């Protein structure tokens, strides 16, 4: 039985696919059946003139550092062009309600029955149904077809909260090398990360509602004096999660899977000891952060967060001072772009 | 490839299987391959003399209301003998470190490959490996074989916390009737319910570490004036979860599955409106409850919880006053039994 797709043309028009790349977009060929009708925003990493070749037939805009400087002026300094954190620029310039971002080394994954997974179909299912951040449903996403709330789940909590983030996972090939990124297990579940709980976000396969939380989805400035073991995706996840919790919107994690062909192994154990010194300050900061009641938008929350980080984490490592300034610049850029 | 069992004879001797029943224990036949070497504690529901027939070859103790009164004296009033909440008595009299409890209408479930699931093997895996209550691992239980922490997961948080509760799930037959208890999906995952998040516990297939949290695993007094929609398992889950959170120990949920042959449908929608009135007081109470730092054992926490419930929930419904008294009696019974 083939389930009818929930993705109508008008829904599809509300989403941009944001991809950052240092060169080849060959991976798009495999995605053609699923992405051909979407609009792509491609951000070229590095300082070169535009050299990215997009496979024929895709509808896209292509930006590089020069474009960012033209559009953002001096605020362009908050955008990293050295790696995939440059995708933040794509989030900023998109005019759509929803964003889907995917790494340029990801292929279409197969479900356990061998069928190609339409990642966006599942991301839309996640985003268009509520989350359950304030009470955990042990049968996982209760809004999924064929699932329900478990017996005893409080009736008054069954309306759930709007979903702001859909955090997809990835599968990769077993290669005999022990690694914390080599996941081979397909788990047929979507869960809401409960309120108050932090996660390490992965930007490989991620969708979000830009209207709800766009200003809080920022991958920061990277490779500029960051402490050992610091990870821009972890950082983005900490920021977005505490803001979602404050705003009363949900973060889901789980399906859909993509296939990660060459998972990097950037976190060697050798970094562990160095990371511990800042982690022990940074994680508790996020576990305890409180926003003023007046902060009622992602934009306000993110600016407030940048101030608290400046005040409380600058002493941990000078990098956090630099990062907090970049966060404030990001919000300034956001404000200027959407002022009118 | 057959994985060697982690359950050694000496580990098996540290666990009691607690079953409450109103009569037939025929279900044990199917469990024989898995339970034959365990000690069973059987609690007979109702007021009759002992009439329960245990299939040959099982090692067991059988208790009824008369035994409870002999052993606990007047404190026996905290034990319900009208339904499966009578299992609490079994938890109390067990001398073992670990308890596994299972409903007497549950059969052995099969995994997706058609293999019978050894529920206790999985419960031991859950209980003997740490939990991750303070930081969510998006690849689920990182201590499971073949799984790890996701990239970026803070190193300092990777030791985890001791696991106190292993909450197994159940599968049931599709019967065309819409019901919140008819789960047909096998999800190959174990997750830690994060600190600060509540769940609706199900006692169908549940294991816990009695040394860590035994006094907090109590199914209360039921069928005695409880408000519409009140559910003893939800209540037990709320109490045990806030106490686990305070003690810094973990609650896992997910695998193993059992097969629930006749899932009752006690929660009709008609109860929804009536439940809302007490839920709106009771759930926020548990979301906000704070224990004094001096409360460092499950016993102390549970007594403290009974006092707070008396103070804050008695006005919601007289049942909560009765329940708080039963909770205090339970702790008194516990104290007397383990005083020497």
From TrEMBL, chains A, B:
This is UDP-arabinopyranose mutase. SUPFAM superfamilies: Nucleotide-diphospho-sugar transferases. The lineage of its organism: Eukaryota, Viridiplantae, Streptophyta, Embryophyta, Marchantiophyta. One of its GO terms (cellular component) is Golgi apparatus. It is found in: Golgi apparatus. Belongs to the RGP family. It comes from Riccia sorocarpa. It comes from the Eukaryota. The keyword Disulfide bond does not apply. Keywords: Golgi apparatus. Its main location: Golgi. Pfam families: RGP.
